[in-house]
Amino acid sequence: MTGYWHFPAIASVLAILYLILDMKWLLLLFIVWLLWLKLLKKMNRTVWLITIFSFLTFVYIVPVVPQTEYEESSIAAEVTGNIEGEVKASSKQIQFTLQPLHHSTKLLVTYFPEKEENYRDIPLEHSLFHGSRCTIHQQIEIPPSSTNPAQFDFRHFLLQKQITHQAVLQDFNDIECISEKGMLSFLYQLRTDLLNRMEDTWSEDTAVWINAIVFGDASAMEESITELFQRFGLSHIIAISGTHVTLVIAFLYLMLVKGNIITKEKTYLFLMVFLPVYSVLAGANPPVLRAAIMMVGLLIFQKYRWKFPYSDLLCIVFMIFILWDPYIIYHVGFQFSFAVTFSILLSQKWISQSKSPVWKVFQVSFIAQMAILPLQIYYFNIFHPLSIFMNLMVIPYFTFFVIPVMYVFAVISFLPDKMIIFLNDIFVFIHERTLQFIGWIDQTLFPPMYLDKLSIISVIIYFVCFLLFMQFLEYKQEKAAAIIGIIFILPILMTASKPYFQDEGIVTMFDMGQGDAILVEAAKREAVVMIDAGAAFHFEDMEPTRGVYKNIIRAYFHQRGIKELDAIIISHDDVDHFGSVRFILEEVNVQELIVSPYFDVTLLEEFQEIQPSLKISYAEAGDLLHFNDAISFQVLAPDADKGDANDNSIVLYTNLGLKWLFTGDISKEIEEQIVRDYPALQIDILKVAHHGSNTSTSEVFLEAVQPRAALISAGRDNRYNHPNEEVLEVLERNQIQVYRTDEQGAIQFYYTDGGGTFSTFLP
């Protein structure tokens, strides 16, 4: 089998795609491929049979995660099981997976520390380590699934880890744990101690990088930094990968062998023991496990002078990982790590043709970026044109400075405080300026491309052309490579430009809980206007939280490739209608902000500070709002200061395939005034005022405007009992079709000049 292990590996990949993507034609492709290998290529019978066996084995073992429906329930229960893997601790949450006794599925346990609690001490105080036997007395819940397009589906994510339920601890009287003795438990406890030691020894700015690069714990990393690295495709630098493991091995080898401390043979033995231990201390994530296992394999081959191709080893490790844990195929790190390693391995001949170290770094960076590009778009909806060049600049900086320095800092934490402070200050001085430079490039030069997931056909075209491209480069056929290079980029460009050729407009009412957030996209992206952008908020100080923007609005913007808004129209100055505006202004270019003349001036000043170029306009009854001749609104209210924020809501009438009325939070009195002022007003679709409160939506109003459909934005099980039963009865009596975000998730209306159709995210 030497030199032929890539055939069973390819069969395993075909089996995985056949199952999880439901691509039935792959079975036919596999059969044709087998016949071609046997009849035309005269493949060895043993290799041929092992390839068939591989396909059948992986078809049998690969788990298919079902699509989830939005149904939540919880029960009080007592669960006993063992902690599996790492206990992830951060200032935001402490989280671990519990494997209940006699059950194959798992339970996710989460605790949110109080501000005064030291989150690093909690696992030590309560024996929260791998292998600990714990009993939980708690409400066991089904995790929530997504209710908006592009929103992260937490339930589906957990199902990919074989986790079906979750428990949120209120305090540690609800859980009792007894730590188990064993090597893994000891190593995980040692890992926690080392993370604590780094934070106690080094400054916060340095400790976060030591813990991320040396121990694989980036939980304390600032969100802005992780997002910056994500945009440039640099996330692999923060997570431990093969580069880190290679550097560790090189350092230890030079120190032990070249320093004449021990012999080469003993060094090999030491490294074979050290690498598995270090992989656990580093978090035991798939990339570091892959690198460690492969390095151990190579050391064994070198020690016994066995000739075994690196490609065979990679293929065997790939299949062993899946056989060991079939659910690992859904792990992003596993996918990225093997995709990059396979691609670089296949390109070794092309890379070896170059004599310039700088050019080799560029080649590796290019191959790595191109290999994971479809995955990056799938998971993050992003592609940055400068990612390859940024990797070319940033990877050497991390490889030759940051990573070695972090490992040295982790080892020398016993030095006197003055020396620690001196070394810390030097690193922070250099590193902060480097991060500022990366941030300046991000702010100043080309913006990233945000786009929807590539279709399966596009991905196939991409990888076929990419392989041909690399083959032409290897044989120095530059013209053919250039042509193929253009072709394999076309699917990405076509996906990015798709909204600009779409003949339908879209109105999206997001399910953002108790509040309003509505986006209107004209056909062919001729105009994009947002009507309200609410947020959840803290009841203590009424300050909006970032969650709705980050998880719902921004996620949708990225999927749809929206980088600019023609306008945001805020109906009135309640936080459940404007709370996400400040976050939008921080990241999205907004040409105009439209409010009523009675809007809070302090808020407008705050918005202007965030985006100084922002144009602020006022709208009142009688005004017409036009956006690139694609979207137009007639303002029906307010006509005077009513002395109440809700009654000062901007009311908009428009034709988006059908006739719409957006009502903010107006009361019945304002509805009656609108009917008096516009007696001929007839609509098809009503955005029900005030989330279905009984202060609005009178029967008189409905009989006057005669809508066919009504949209209600309300939070599930909200404290106000919205929508009110009285309102729902009135709508039903008038035979009006009701769409509710609390029951159906996000509501979308696809329209053309001749009409449109509704679509709800949940059935």
Automatic annotation (TrEMBL):
Pfam families from the UniProt entry: Competence, DUF4131, Lactamase_B
Membrane-topology annotation of the record: Multi-pass membrane protein
Subcellular location: Cell membrane
Transmembrane segment boundaries: 6-35, 47-65, 234-256, 268-288, 332-351, 357-380, 392-415, 454-473, 480-501
Metallo-beta-lactamase domain mapped to chain residues: 514-716
SMART domains documented for this protein: Lactamase_B (SM00849)
Isomerase recorded as keyword: no
InterPro entries documented for this protein: ComA-like_MBL, ComEC_N, Competence_ComEC/Rec2, Competence_DNA_uptake, DUF4131, Metallo-B-lactamas, RibonucZ/Hydroxyglut_hydro
Keywords: Cell membrane, Membrane, Transmembrane, Transmembrane helix
Chief place of localization: membrane
Keyword Cell membrane: yes
NCBIfam families xref list: ComEC_N-term (TIGR00360), ComEC_Rec2 (TIGR00361)
Full protein name: DNA internalization-related competence protein ComEC/Rec2
Organism: Oceanobacillus jeddahense
